[in-house]
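Hi, here's the filled form for the chain we discussed.

Project: internal
Contact: R.S.
Residues: 523
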Amino acid sequence: FDRFTRLQELTRFIAESAGDVATLQQNMSRNLDNCEAALEAQARMTRDLQDGLMSVRMIAFASLNERLFRVVRLTAREAAKRVTLDIRGDKVELDRGVIERIIGPLEHLLRNAVVHGIETMPQRLEAGKPSAGEITLDVRQEGNEVVLTLRDDGRGLDIGALRAKAIAAGLMKADLLLADSQIVQFAFEAGLSTAENVTESAGRGVGLDVVRSEVAALGGRVDVSFEPGKGTAFSIHLPLMVAVMQALLIRCRGQQFALPTLMVRQVRAVAQHSLARLYKVGRIDWRGEAFPVHDLRALLGMEVQGESRVQRHTPLILIGGGAQRVAIQVDEIVGHEEVVVKNVGAQVARVIGITGAAVRGGGEIVLILDPVQLTRRAPPQRSAAVPFGKSKSDMGIEAVATVLVVDDSATVRKITSRILARQGYSVVEARDGVDALEKLRSALPAVMLLDVEMPRMDGFELLRRVRDEPAWRELPVIMITSRTAEKHRKVAMELGATLFLGKPFEEQDLLAQVARVTVKERV
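And the returned structure, exactly as it came back:
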């Protein structure tokens, strides 16, 4: 028994090796714990440094007091009115970038309140009001938002005049009955103003669309409420900081987008049969509030048919922006992140519904969307989407108007098609007059956008053939060309053109004209 065999030597060697491995594991575990503690300390230091840098950007709203007081004082003097301004909660701090960009919209709202909101002294005395008008600016912080409420005790908004302006601009039908809260939204349309006299004090005829676009560029929103004869209140919701924000990352048709988490009320997984029922009803109810249901693909002008992947449950995100509510359908929810926000270029900034761009940790850039803004630019029946495996006839959705775009430039066709598709129109493209004739024989559109200079058959020849054909004689035709001389306009109108526009065209002008002729066509 005292003899050592080769087997005993090997077993002793294995036991010693196992002990060495255990010791090494203990040392590595101890070093790993130290590394984790060091990483946590570094993360705390990074957060403290980030908070310190962000606090440097914060400025008290009181820094704007003197400027706002001066605007009201000078505007009231020019309008021969007595107006007082009361600023409350001016100790609230905002990001320097927010302060610099919100001052313009605030001044615009103050001037409009003095010139168009506050009545003259005789009118106020006759209405039983104090001779001096009062404007109140209340600044308060709600979570990660700052709410600026500008309230005056003037005459309130003139809904009748606003409705008449909207009808004249082709934004609504004359026989359409809308609630006052819906008609108020027309005040934010470009070029729409109820001011009878355009003055230097009241912004030289610039409407509230400038205010909304500036606030939307900051990732905020504007709500308006009024009471006839008692005043108007504008509520501006702004983020505390524009450099960093919490975002919900989503995927739609393979592309990633970001939604501000401040706007997200709830996220649901809805079965296909339930989703079809929601689209048929048009809304989803949650906690006593109605959220109109939309498909984000349709709002972004993406193709909603032919989805290869069928999901048993589809994510539905309930969004709340001020008094507005909307539920959007997306393909997938990626996750939640803190992202760095960057300003987008001038070209993208004009697109409604895009409030900025976010840079993820890996350097990937995603667009930040405002679904409330996206749903405002199109009628609900046009932005209603079709769930997977369903057709519009199955859902009972009204067919949208078809627009035929005829232009030899592929770039112009693509840009025009995207503009129209974002508004819910069905777009058909043709590269010249011959191609357009083939498309017309297949199906008659609601309106045709026609260029002049094209190969094989130019716009004038195509227009002549359209007017000679009885089936196409009443088709609205909008000529869009860089040939804007009077002789070209005269030839186009003599051949039967409905409208004549020049290139480059304004997006809002084109949409207004297309909406006007399509409404007349449906009537």
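Let me know if anything looks off before we file it.
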